[in-house]
């Protein structure tokens, strides 16, 4: 497999074509962004840490029967993925109240959400990823009702697998965001799973171990990501 020209550069990853029309290369950069890209910083080792973390999690999800776009790791900072037609809708599950939910609804940060909530957001930085619903997604053609139902099922399956995985490492999976795409007619998990796109707290102290450390200027961002990885059995070399 040969890496070809760049297709797209996102806020933290760049995407490359390959000689296989069904495969892309994802390059995890050290760039870290927050607030819809208004704040960007380079954090040493982040690309390697998130690429390694993502490969490990995608492997766990795949083993649990959840279809993902992940194919193989290519280098420290790159992996090969299936080329999907991305659905521009972000799926968020919350087990514990934090972030946007606390701001929007005034609930107390840290309260347990039972049952866990499921929210949809439109992937659009210029509009600050507005919250949407199934009706809007259908009307505007972002996703069909069937696709949304499948995305919801898969997003909760991911919760079952990862809540347990992180709890076994002494951490709470507070919330997370997933993106999906279509590959040969099937809904498949795309993008990445890393501490950039979820919230993880130490189960005892409730210390933040995810991107909120960057958003809130708490420092020790990559050290926390590596600690999360170590606790679930990842060797960063
Ligand atoms: O992160 P923020 O407070 O802006 O929004 P949220 O709705 O509380 O985010 C819920 C979860 O989805 C968090 O784990 C975020 O890190 C993640 N998220 C993301 O990765 N990308 C987005 N564009 C929005 C949320």
UniProtKB/TrEMBL annotation:
Organism listed in the record: Modicisalibacter muralis
Entry's Gene Ontology BP terms: 'de novo' IMP biosynthetic process; cobalamin biosynthetic process
Alphabetical keyword list: ATP-binding, Ligase, Nucleotide-binding, Purine biosynthesis
UniProt record similarity statement: Belongs to the SAICAR synthetase family.
Record-level GO cellular component terms: cytosol
Reaction catalysis annotation: 5-amino-1-(5-phospho-D-ribosyl)imidazole-4-carboxylate + L-aspartate + ATP = (2S)-2-[5-amino-1-(5-phospho-beta-D-ribosyl)imidazole-4-carboxamido]succinate + ADP + phosphate + 2 H(+)
InterPro entries, A to Z: SAICAR_synt/ADE2_N (IPR028923), SAICAR_synt_PurC (IPR033934), SAICAR_synth (IPR001636), SAICAR_synthetase (IPR050089), SAICAR_synthetase_CS (IPR018236)
Protein name: Phosphoribosylaminoimidazole-succinocarboxamide synthase
Listed pathway(s): Purine metabolism; IMP biosynthesis via de novo pathway; 5-amino-1-(5-phospho-D-ribosyl)imidazole-4-carboxamide from 5-amino-1-(5-phospho-D-ribosyl)imidazole-4-carboxylate: step 1/2
HAMAP family: SAICAR_synth
Pfam families listed in its UniProt record: SAICAR_synt
NCBIfam families given in the database record: purC
